[in-house]
Structures are given as C-alpha cells and as structure tokens.
Specification:
This protein is an alpha+beta fold. It contains three helices and five strands; from the N terminus they run H-E-E-E-E-E-H-H. Bound molecules: zinc ion (ZN). Zinc ion binds near residues 51 and 54. This is Zinc finger CHC2-type domain-containing protein.
Length: about 80
C-alpha cells in the first residue's frame, strides 16, 4: 500500500467525517446508510463498514467510490504523480 495515499484525505472529499474516540466515522457511501456505519482508522489507513462489510485501504475506497478496477485507479494515481 502506497504510504503517501492518505485515506482520511481521500474519504473526506466524498463523505462527512465525524471524529469519534479512536476512529473517524461517516455514513457509508457504499450502501444506503442511515447511521454512521463506516469507520476509518487513520493509524492503519483502513476503512471498514459495519453495514455492508466494505473494507480496505485508499485504493479499495477509490475503486468502490469511482466504480473502477484496481488497475484503473492505480493508473489514474500514477498520472497524478503518485509513485506506485
Ligand atoms: Zn456500507
């Protein structure tokens, strides 16, 4: 996992993040979420949804939110100058 991809930064462009004790919480953008099922732990650069089971790192988040394959995401990031 590329270190310079910050999941919190990426996620904050798509969802409203709320600070909770150990993690950040948000309404999950991957299913119809009336609560804040999505948890992001900044230390691990990792997200997990307790509603739909989506989980992963920055690449997985982008794949789901942009509905693209891993290759498309990685190529897109490379074009933006991320050394992957
Ligand atoms: Zn979800």
């Amino acid at each position: 996992m590329p270190e310079n991809l910050n999941l919190v930064e990426i996620a904050s462009k798509h969802v409203l993040l709320q600070q909770s004790r150990k993690a950040l919480k948000a309404r999950c953008p991957f299913h119809k979420d009336d609560t804040t099922s999505l948890m992001i732990t900044p230390q691990n650069n990792f997200f997990k949804c307790f509603g739909c089971g989506a989980e992963g790192g920055p690449i997985e988040f982008l794949m789901r939110i942009e509905n693209k394959s891993r290759t498309e995401i990685v190529n897109g990031l490379a074009k933006q100058g991320f050394p992957l």
